[in-house]
């Protein structure tokens, strides 16, 4: 028994029992550390927590690997959709647009011309600078805006279509259907295309208008630009003529009215002279007064002779009878002459229409006054007409052409690189807005 006890005492201890005190402290530390990591993962979220290989976590690795694979699958699907949308909405259209601009779009040439609406006002200036400033003076801004609207109007497009046949001039070149015009289009579509091919720039400070015409052939561009210049010149001339006629019309009407009034006054005066058979009743009145005075003088002399004869002769003597007869004749003649000079109250009451000198003078003065006033009015109307004519001539508008329509030797349009860049930027902008909107809605949901 003693031997067995010694053997048992000398037998080594089991490994677990021997190592238990030694391994108890690391296991406790590992468990405490795994609990801290679990709390940290709960605060940060499982998907964002780093995977740290620790003892005691081997059983959770398959589940975490499956979650990681599903997250990557979702991420790849979303990115694939974004990439596909970029290819379909940006890369492919931008490439097609660039190829179209580089190899399909037809060359376009432009013709440029510059002109301005000018007016001449006032007298001639004494210096050269004044001559140019007078020639360019005047309020022609409104006329320039009228001309600009006319160039881009439906009337101009219709006139150009009748002269050049826009469907033939701007027909499709090759496969370039974007810049070409269609066939059998209404005037509204032709006007839209006309405004795209014709550009008008107006400088308000200098009054200069620049017109640029685009076409597929340089000669056609110059011909259309020259047609625009000719039509603009005709419009300005017609506006100037219309304004001149408006200014002169009122003055001419006044002249015609004054002339008719003067003719009527002269006709009335002539009728009066035909009836009265005298040029001027005033002159007749002067002669009547002189005649009455002479008769009164003779009557006075006869009365004196009669008184002398009565003192020397008897009443029945022939001399006294002759003197009395002459005195009676003179008195009758004097009464007649006085009646011609003035009707008097008694005669006027008996015969209001008696032809007396005073009435004829009043009627003649009325007609003469009307004639004089009509002559003055007619003279004033003629003077106003002359002034209006001078003013109208000084305010004439004309089209001052500074630059003749040019002939291009090299194509300027379309701007291939610029148009390609604009298409790319526009597609990128639209695609970026769509992607940002998608992520914004996704984050809010």
Description:
GO terms for molecular function: protein tyrosine kinase activity. Residues 292-340 form a coiled coil. This is RkpR, polysaccharide export protein. Residues 1-29 have a biased composition (Low complexity). By secondary structure, the chain is an alpha+beta fold. It has three domains: 38-47 and 61-105 and 414-445; 107-251 and 398-413, Bacterial polysaccharide co-polymerase-like, CATH 3.30.1890.10; 258-391, no CATH class. The chain contains 14 helices and four strands. The chain has helices at residues 2-10, 15-44, 61-104, 128-135, 141-151, 154-164, 166-169, 187-197, 218-276, 281-312, 318-341, 344-350, 357-394, 416-444, and strands at 109-119, 198-202, 208-215, 397-403. It has a four-stranded antiparallel beta sheet. α3 packs antiparallel against α14 (416-444). Mean pLDDT is 76; it is low at 1-24, 44-52, 56-66, 122-138 and 343-352.
What does this entry show, briefly?
The protein is 71% helix and 7% strand. The chain is of the alpha+beta class and 445 residues long. It folds into 3 domains: 38-47 and 61-105 and 414-445; 107-251 and 398-413, Bacterial polysaccharide co-polymerase-like, CATH 3.30.1890.10; 258-391, no CATH class.
Key structural traits:
alpha+beta, Bacterial polysaccharide co-polymerase-like, 14 helices, protein tyrosine kinase activity, disordered N terminus, 445 residues, four-stranded antiparallel beta sheet
């Amino acid at each position: 028994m003693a031997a067995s006890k010694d053997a048992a005492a000398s037998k080594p201890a089991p490994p677990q029992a021997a190592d238990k005190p030694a391994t108890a402290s690391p296991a406790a530390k590992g468990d405490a550390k795994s609990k801290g990591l679990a709390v940290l993962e709960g605060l940060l979220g499982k998907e964002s927590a780093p995977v740290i290989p620790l003892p005691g976590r081997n059983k959770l690795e398959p589940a975490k690997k499956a979650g990681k694979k599903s997250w990557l699958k979702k991420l790849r699907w979303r990115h694939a959709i974004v990439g596909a949308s970029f290819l379909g909405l940006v890369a492919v259209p931008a490439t097609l647009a660039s190829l179209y601009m580089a190899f399909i779009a037809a060359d376009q040439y432009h013709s440029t011309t510059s002109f301005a609406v000018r007016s001449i006002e006032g007298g001639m200036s004494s210096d050269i600078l004044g001559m140019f400033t007078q020639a360019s003076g005047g309020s022609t801004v409104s006329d320039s805006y009228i001309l600009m609207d006319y160039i881009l109007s439906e009337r101009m497009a219709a006139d150009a279509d009748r002269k050049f046949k826009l469907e033939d001039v701007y027909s499709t070149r090759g496969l370039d259907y974007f810049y070409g015009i269609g066939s059998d289009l209404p005037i509204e579509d032709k006007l839209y295309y006309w405004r795209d091919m014709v550009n008008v720039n107006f400088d308000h400070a200098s009054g200069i208008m620049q017109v640029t015409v685009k076409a597929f052939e340089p000669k056609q561009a110059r011909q259309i630009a020259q047609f625009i210049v000719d039509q603009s010149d005709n419009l300005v001339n017609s506006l100037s003529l219309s304004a001149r006629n408006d200014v002169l019309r009122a003055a001419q009407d006044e002249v015609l009215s004054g002339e008719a009034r003067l003719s009527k006054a002269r006709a009335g005066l002539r009728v009066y002279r035909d009836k009265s058979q005298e040029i001027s009743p005033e002159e007749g009145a002067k002669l009547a007064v002189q005649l009455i005075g002479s008769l009164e003088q003779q009557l006075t002399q006869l009365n004196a002779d009669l008184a002398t004869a009565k003192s020397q002769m008897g009443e029945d003597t022939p001399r006294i009878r002759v003197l009395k007869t002459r005195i009676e004749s003179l008195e009758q003649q004097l009464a007649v002459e006085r009646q011609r000079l003035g009707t008097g109250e008694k005669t006027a009451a008996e015969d209001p229409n008696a032809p007396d000198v005073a009435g004829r003078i009043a009627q003649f003065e009325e007609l003469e006054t009307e004639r004089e006033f009509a002559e003055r009015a007619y003279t004033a109307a003629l003077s106003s007409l002359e002034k209006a004519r001078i003013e109208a001539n000084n305010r004439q508008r004309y089209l001052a052409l500074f630059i003749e329509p040019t002939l291009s030797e090299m194509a300027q349009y379309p701007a291939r690189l610029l148009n390609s860049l604009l298409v790319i930027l526009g597609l990128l902008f639209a695609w970026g807005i769509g992607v940002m909107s998608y992520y914004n809605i996704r984050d809010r949901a």
